[in-house]
Specification:
The structure holds 3 protein chains of 3 kinds.
Chain A: E1 4-15, E2 18-29, E3 33-37, H1 44-51, E4 59-64, E5 67-68, H2 74-80, E6 84-87, H3 101-112, H4 118-131, H5 148-160, E7 166-170, H6 178-191, E8 197-202, H7 205-211, E9 214-219, E10 222-228, H8 229-234, H9 239-247, H10 288-291, E11 297-300, E12 303-305
Parallel strand pairs in A: 3-8, 3-9, 6-7, 7-8
Antiparallel strand pairs in A: 1-2, 1-4, 4-5, 9-10, 10-12, 11-12
Chain B: H1 2-13, H2 16-38, H3 72-108, H4 110-125, H5 128-139, H6 143-169, H7 173-180, H8 185-221, H9 233-242, H10 249-280
Helix pairs in contact in B: 1-10, 2-3, 2-10, 3-4, 3-6, 3-8, 3-9, 3-10, 4-6, 5-6, 6-8, 7-8, 8-9, 8-10, 9-10
Chain C: E1 5-16, E2 19-31, E3 36-41, H1 47-54, E4 63-70, E5 73-74, H2 80-86, E6 91-94, H3 98-101, H4 108-120, H5 124-137, H6 143-147, H7 156-168, E7 174-178, H8 186-203, E8 206-211, H9 214-218, E9 223-228, E10 231-237, H10 238-243, H11 248-256, H12 296-300, E11 306-307, E12 311-313
Parallel strand pairs in C: 3-8, 3-9, 6-7, 7-8
Antiparallel strand pairs in C: 1-2, 1-4, 4-5, 9-10, 10-12, 11-12
Helix pairs in contact in C: 4-5, 5-7, 7-8
The chains are: A alpha/beta, B mainly alpha, C alpha/beta.
């Protein structure tokens, strides 16, 4: 990867005594769309907030365009925010109910381009609204007058008005109807300007598959697999990834419901003091998994997995299409 | 903000009790400012010919006179003016101070919040009446002292309310979104926090006005507030209390005005809460 | 054979200051004993309101008209004591978010035992033992320990199992599952679907599975009803629906489900526009504004459900195989 936009190293986040992110490292390059998948408790949303310094990690570094966001002063951080934006999961909740959508979209302009006069701002806001598929006359309306999908477009407009270099999408379409999800994703793809990278966080594997160049899989605060998208879906290595893919329900009744590939529920991370966090649910567990935590190991070019058995050829999980 | 204010106004209009209360309040305000023009008397003149006269249409003293022959109509209206003015002014001051204090303390959080709230608790613990008496002894009676004492009452609870409201608003996602957009603390408090807590705050402010008027009346009743020849509803009630057996109207006229004023303010405040609540819920 | 549930021209409307909002618009459907019916629809489709009305959970907030018969007895006009005898015993419901539908301050055991004590007159001690056995049957690990735990001490998947257990205690004839897996992780979702399948086999009751996700319903349902804007637009046996959808909306919905298998797409399939807001229902086909096949007739005349016993669609120009 040549131009690295974001470099996360050894990130750790604790909520009180509870370790939510337990050492995450990855890179993200300009123009890349990276999917981050995981279930509840994996820490994926916390990771987004940690990168944006909406909360303070206990350890680690987040280098964005060469600046360590976790160590810089609040003033520098605010300046960096111009290039680093986020779209949240709940479209309505992320908009201030007391501001018109025009004011909401204009806010980043007011903060970073104070030289603009009101009419220039108004014009930019109108343009942005059109680019996200709404009309510029809507700028005087309030969020509660819009549907979920429209609110999400407004959120995207706000995030993109300053042409950020990195956009984090935190479960951006999860609360939208199926028939609307495609619209929003396609909008994102259309708006992705030259060099803009996207970190797309989702629990919906199917959407991630169609969107991403590379995929990161997270389990209980750690990355368990990193791979180019095709490789991940065609030949997943980590048992958790395999379990996730097997659990996706299939479209056709002939196939029937998916096999629950990962029995039991997630362990509570505090109880894991040593070894692999997935060992209680793993069908391939070995004695060494109790004591030794597997590191991320490169099993193929660009394909990493944190499993002691990653180099073996395990029984592939099959699912017909 | 317009759309939401219209929404609340509409809901308020459809509440008959609140509408009636507002109407009566307006009537009282108009009466107390314009009423004296219609009377041949003024509130200061001592009419020796008509001492402690009953209310009626026979003399020019429609509400009667007091022990010194002063016209009760103009005097009561003057007293009402003073009480309302003090009530409003003190409410506005406690609103401004309380909102800023509460919003800042809560948003910044941490130790700042801790310290600021401890200060409020200390101030709340002071027995206010003794404090006022103490200050009167030192500084003598004055209207400024009155203002200070009343202001001290209002802003404490306002600050607490705003702090509580801010604590819940600060968790909401649009605040995170504003931070992520690069907004600084000042901007977030002013543009995002305050407009979103203003609903309950306005309601509380409206309900504070009667409290303040009552407190002022109480202070004046004790002789700590407005002095002769000035009048407020409190001083008038104090005078009237002394004449209760012989000339009950001296008490009843200002007393009824105070009661009606407070009742209407409370009903209006409740109506306002209902009108704003649905949106804030 | 008396149908387990017979809904006839059910209408549910909510009064709003600007008029009334029709959430369910003259819906008729039937469920026969031991049948599993999937009800699929997006937001505003009215799929949940039908059953909330049937269970009398909308009382006071909405105007309900029409008829809902449970095993031949009319539910809508029945008195409260009779309704309470049926609800929770023979006609039970599983809700979407088990965290909010279980009482937080009562132990699991108390809540479960309460059901059989109330409906079957069991003594408390026996009721608790019975509850423990039911927890075993729904595969809750360490059932005795769970009885003494509070809802917040259990994971989402386990709470849902408790809800399922609760719904089965009195051997119901019909269980209504309203989005039972939406709040759960993918892997847990697969487990719960498996559980529902097993439970159906064991208890033989009729099951209504409400979901916005066709894939979830695919593995379980014998028959599927698709709802749009308060009406049923397609009613077909599962296999027919997936292989030969007859209503254009169903076809679009199927297309919009991205899959983890099959070729990767450049842009996700999508359906333009959005579902009508509740209340915007007119004497026309509600789907006409978004339908690529809409003709003049569709904009003035409301189509009725027509077709064979295996597949019906409310469309003037249904898709043919």
């Amino acid at each position: 990867m040549n131009n690295i936009l974001l470099r996360v190293r050894d990130l750790r986040v604790d909520f009180g005594a509870h370790a939510v992110i337990r050492g995450v490292s990855f890179d993200l390059g300009g123009g890349e769309i990276v999917g981050l998948v995981g279930e509840s408790g994996s820490g994926k949303s916390t990771l987004a907030r940690a990168i944006l310094r909406l909360l303070q990690p206990v350890q680690g570094s987040v280098e964005f365009l060469g600046v360590d966001l976790l160590k810089c002063s609040p003033k520098v951080m605010r300046a960096q925010r111009r290039g680093l934006q986020i779209v949240f999961q709940d479209p309505l909740a992320s908009l201030d109910p007391r501001m018109t959508v025009g004011e909401t979209i204009a806010e980043p302009l007011k903060i970073f381009e104070s030289g603009l006069n009101a009419s220039a701002r108004q014009r930019k806001v109108g343009d942005m609204l059109q680019r996200v598929g709404l009309s510029s006359e809507m700028s005087g309306r309030y969020p509660h007058e819009f549907s979920g999908g429209q609110c999400q477009r407004i959120g995207i407009a706000r995030a993109m008005i300053l042409s950020p270099k990195l956009l984090i999408c935190d479960e951006m379409v999860s609360s939208l109807d199926v028939s609307i999800q495609g619209q929003i994703i396609n909008l994102l793809l259309d708006l992705q300007e030259a060099g803009m990278a996207v970190l797309f966080i989702s629990h919906n594997l199917a959407v991630v598959r169609h969107l991403s160049h590379r995929v990161l899989v997270m389990y209980l605060g750690k990355l368990v697999e990193i791979a180019p998208c095709d490789a991940l879906f065609a030949s997943p290595v980590h048992p958790y990834t395999r379990g996730l893919l097997a659990a996706v329900p299939h479209r056709l009744p002939a196939v029937g419901a998916a096999a629950p590939g990962a029995p039991g529920d997630q362990a509570v991370p505090d109880l894991i003091t040593s070894g692999c966090a997935f060992r209680d649910r793993c069908p391939y567990v070995l004695p060494m998994c109790e004591t030794s935590e597997p590191p991320l190991d490169e099993v193929a070019p660009g394909h990493w997995a944190a499993c002691h058995r990653s180099h073996e050829t395990l029984n592939p999980l099959s699912f017909e299409s | 903000m317009d759309g939401l204010a219209d929404e609340a106004a509409r809901r308020l209009r459809s509440n008959p009790a609140a509408v009636a209360a507002v109407a009566v309040l307006c009537a009282i305000v108009v009466l107390s400012w314009l009423g004296p023009w219609f009377s041949p008397n003024n509130s200061q003149t001592l009419d020796w010919l008509h001492i402690a006269v009953r209310p009626g249409m026979q003399s020019s003293h429609w509400f009667g006179t007091d022990r010194l022959g002063r016209d009760l109509f103009t005097r009561t209206l003057a007293g009402t003016r003073v009480s309302i003015a003090i009530g409003l002014a003190a409410s506005v001051i406690s609103l401004l101070v309380g909102v800023s204090y509460g919003a800042i303390a809560s948003y910044i959080g941490g130790r700042t919040d801790h310290l600021m709230m401890r200060l409020i608790e200390i101030l709340s613990g002071l027995p206010l009446i003794f404090f006022v008496i103490f200050l009167t002894v030192i500084f003598g009676r004055s209207e400024y002292l009155l203002f200070f004492a009343i202001g001290a009452v209002g802003w404490l609870t306002m600050a607490r309310i705003v702090r509580g409201q801010t604590l819940s608003v600060r968790q909401r996602e649009f605040i995170e979104a504003a931070i992520a957009s690069g907004a600084g603390t000042g901007r977030i408090i002013a543009r995002h926090v305050v407009p979103n807590v203003i609903g309950p705050v306005i309601v509380y402010a409206t309900l504070t006005v009667p409290q303040i008027i009552l407190f002022e009346s109480f202070l004046s009743f004790l002789g700590l507030g407005i002095q002769e020849p000035g009048a407020s509803l409190g001083t008038l009630i104090a005078e009237g209390a002394g004449e209760m057996e012989a000339a009950p109207w001296i008490l009843l006229v200002p007393g009824s005005f105070l009661a009606v004023l407070l009742l209407c303010l409370n009903i209006f405040g409740d109506g306002l809460r209902d009108a704003l609540d649905v949106k804030d819920g | 054979m008396v149908p387990t549930l017979s809904v006839d021209r059910l209408r549910v409307s909510f009064s709003h200051r600007s008029g009334s909002i029709e959430a369910v618009d003259r819906v008729s459907l039937q469920i026969v004993p031991a049948e599993c019916v999937g009800i699929v629809g997006e937001s505003g489709s009215g799929k949940t309101q039908i059953f909330m009305a049937a269970m009398g959970l909308l009382a006071g907030k909405a105007q309900v008209s029409g008829s809902v018969r449970f095993e031949g007895n009319e539910l809508l006009s029945v008195d409260r004591p009779t309704l309470n005898r049926v609800r929770g015993s023979k006609l039970t419901m599983i809700f979407q978010d088990p965290m909010t539908s279980l009482t937080p301050h009562l132990t699991v055991g108390t809540q479960l035992a309460e059901v059989t004590v109330t409906h079957l007159g069991m003594p408390w001690k026996d009721a608790r033992t019975f509850a423990g056995r039911m927890l075993e049957r729904v595969h809750v690990p360490e059932p005795k320990r769970r009885l003494n735990q509070y809802p917040h001490e259990l994971s989402g998947g386990m709470r849902q199992r408790v809800m399922i257990a609760m719904s089965l205690l009195c051997e119901p004839s019909l269980v209504i599952a309203d989005e039972p897996t939406t709040a759960l992780d993918m892997t847990t979702q697969a487990q719960i679907i498996e559980l529902l399948r097993a439970v159906r086999g064991e208890f033989g009751m009729a099951l209504v599975l409400i979901s916005h996700d066709l894939a979830v319903v695919a593995g379980l349902a014998d028959r599927i009803l698709v709802m749009y804007a308060g009406s049923v637009v397609e009613n077909a046996i599962a296999e027919e629906l997936f292989k030969h959808p007859r209503h254009p909306y169903t076809a679009e919905l199927l297309k919009c489900m991205p899959s983890v298998t099959g070729p990767r797409l450049d842009r996700l399939p999508t359906l333009a526009g959005q579902p009508p807001r509740p209340g915007e229902i007119l004497e026309a086909c509600p789907f006409a504004p978004r339908c690529s096949r809409a003709a003049d007739r569709c904009r003035v005349e409301r189509p009725q459900l027509e077709g064979s016993s295996t597949s019906q669609a409310a469309c003037h120009f249904p898709l043919t195989s």
